Amino acid sequence: VFGREYLEMPLGFLYGGGEGVGGPSLLHGLSLVCIGMVLGHAVTRFLDPAPSGRRRGVMLLGGLFLLAVVASALMWDWSAPFATVQGIADMSLRNENHPIYFSLGLGFTIASVLLCVLALDVFQRSWGSRLQFMGKTSLFTFSFGNILLYASPDPHRGLATAALMAAVFFALICAQSYLFMRLMMPAAPDAPPAWKALTGRFQQLVRGLQQPISGAVDAVLSRRRAAPDVPPRNPA
After folding, report:
1. Which residue ranges run through the membrane (predicted)?
2. 3-state helix, strand, coil in the chain (%, to 5)
């Protein structure tokens, strides 16, 4: 209409297609939820004190990682290996919803989760505690990190530029998530008054934004609980 495409952006939020930087979509969000549920179950089994449970966790994590590696190797363009790297860097494979985007993401996610579990839970490394804010603010990182990516310039500028942009915006997203965690934490008793006032106002703002959504969910759940049970129909 009038020379403009109005359906590209709302459709992109459903399946993640379109041009430029890919924002959050229903398809990618549900994929993260499904993978997270499976990985959570596998990690729980992996940390099970019982040998049988630990063995199941190792088999599940190993099987998923092997599946991701084999699938990525089969879909990789070995005739032009750096073309696949370029497609990942400029987000073209992501916006095409290419299966290799999901298989590579699954492999790197499993490796990262396993590394963190081994460092923090198995070997009890204290240095890893400083990185726990990434897990505590994962939902904020996913949503507001995508919003921050919209501010990035066109990623189709070559491999070196795309890699530099990825490093810069990764650092910005981590800093944004760390600041959010600090603002949501109770201020220390000896903190400066300005910091106490800032954290208090920020937490009040977040609660104000969450209240309408929480109220709507509570209203729906209360109606479902109050609804009388409908007896099943007599098949006769």
Report:
1. 26-47, 59-80, 100-121, 133-152, 158-180
2. 75, 0, 25
Quickly list DSSP for 110-163.
HHHHHHHHIIIIIS--GGGGGGTHHHHTHHHHHHHHHHHHTTS--S-S-HHHHH
Give the integer Cα–Cα distance in Å for 45 and 60.
Answer: 9
What residue has token string 């008054």? 193
Phi and psi torsions of 140, nearest 5°? -65, -40
CB-facing half-sphere around the CA of 38: CA atoms within 13 A: 16
Q: Which amino acid is at 6?
A: Y
- Angle 210-136-41 from CA coordinates, rounded to 5°: 105
Q: For 64-111, how does the pLDDT look when each residue is reduced to its tens digit (9 = 90+)? A: 999 999 999 999 988 888 888 888 877 778 777 788 888 898 899 889
Q: Where are the domains of the chain?
A: 1-128, 132-212
**How far is Cα 29 from Cα 21, in angstroms, rounded to an integer?**
16
